[in-house]
Amino acid sequence: MSEWLYQIRIKVSENISNDLRDMCQLNLSKKLKQIAKTHQMALVCTYDAFEAYCVEAEQNGIDGYGLYHWTKATIEDPLKKAKHLKSFAFYLGEDQIYPKELASSVQNQLEEINDKELQEINLIDSNPANNPQPPKKNL
Q1: Is residue 136 part of a domain?
Q2: Does an H or E element contain 74, and which?
Q3: Tell me, what's the pLDDT at 132?
Q4: Over the chain, what is the mean pLDDT?
Q5: Do the domain assignments include residue 137?
């Protein structure tokens, strides 16, 4: 059994991103939301999560938020904003990572969808060796 936890991330078209973040009226958006609901999960836009982190930091004092400056710079950069607006992660409640069995189940259901607007499906593990680490503070 793996000691690592996992997350499913997807990249969608701008059209689907806008729909997922708004009315969720398009067929693909409904399918994605249904997969999340089936697993008692939420589909969270990466940009929205970054923006919420910055708002929380600004309300509580940025000194307690080690990634504040990096995150703020990311959401203010037009190219990075466009990228992160099309990126979504499946959350289990407040948990961003969860057991592999759950992640694999979500991944399998996503892979059954044949729609070019679902551009990427990624299974990410929590092993630090496989993931970028937070930026170092400039001294």
Answers
A1: no
A2: helix 68-76
A3: 67
A4: 93
A5: no
Q: Does a structural domain hold residue 37? A: yes
Please report, for residues 24, 43, 48, 110, 128, the alpha-carbon distance to residue 125 in angstroms, rounded to integers and kept in the order given.
Answer: 28, 18, 22, 17, 8
Long-range contacts of residues 69-77, Cβ cutoff 8 Å, at least 24 apart: 70/134, 70/135, 74/50, 75/47, 75/50, 75/51
- The torsion angles phi and psi of 58, rounded to 5 degrees, stand at -65, -30
Query: Whole-model pTM above 0.85?
Result: yes
For the stretch 51-109, pLDDT in tens is 999 999 999 999 999 999 999 999 999 999 999 999 999 999 999 999 999 999 999 99
How many domains are contained in the chain?
1
Q: Is 48 left (phi over 0), alpha (psi -120 to 50) or beta?
A: alpha
The whole domain housing 17 covers 6-130
Q: Is residue 135 part of a domain?
A: no
Measure the CA–CA gap between 61 and 58, rounded to whole angstroms: 5
24 vs 136 pLDDT, higher one: 24
